[in-house]
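Work Package 4 report. The design task specified in the project plan requires that, given a folded chain encoded as structure tokens, an amino acid be chosen for each position. We show below one input record used in the internal validation round.
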């Protein structure tokens, strides 16, 4: 009789474990899908600049540094661009551009910025001679 109860307990335990793993898997897949969808909401396209930069498309998946330094995410090799010139960051659903105390400044829609600026779809960002268009997908 005790053997039968232990066997039934094991069966119940295996079923509960299976249901738990199924629930965790379904939740995890939903979170991954959600992150992928939300993460690539913003992108930057280089419209004008050096031949190597023109046509560059960057999906914003995290902070993106623009500068002359080879360690920058978008490298603009020009004398008017600081080593670490500006930074794009995602703040919730918004894309924010910050000038990192560059010597020659960063322009948004032709106006120099002095503090972090929340960008809108279609805004034009200029760093040195490079002009980038921000788009929201």
């Amino acid at each position: 009789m005790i053997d039968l109860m232990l066997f039934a307990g094991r069966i119940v335990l295996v079923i509960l474990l299976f249901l738990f793993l199924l629930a965790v898997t379904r939740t995890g897949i939903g979170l991954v899908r959600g992150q992928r969808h939300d993460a690539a909401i913003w992108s930057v396209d280089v419209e004008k600049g050096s031949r190597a930069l023109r046509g560059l498309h960057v999906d914003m998946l995290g902070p993106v540094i623009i500068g002359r330094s080879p360690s920058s995410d978008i490298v603009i090799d020009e004398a008017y661009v600081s080593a670490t010139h500006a930074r794009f960051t995602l703040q919730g659903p918004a894309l924010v551009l910050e000038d990192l105390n560059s010597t020659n400044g960063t322009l948004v829609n032709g106006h120099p910025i002095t503090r972090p600026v929340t960008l809108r779809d279609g805004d034009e960002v200029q760093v040195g001679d490079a002009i980038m268009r921000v788009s929201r997908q």
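The mean pLDDT is 87. Validation will be extended to a larger panel in the next phase.
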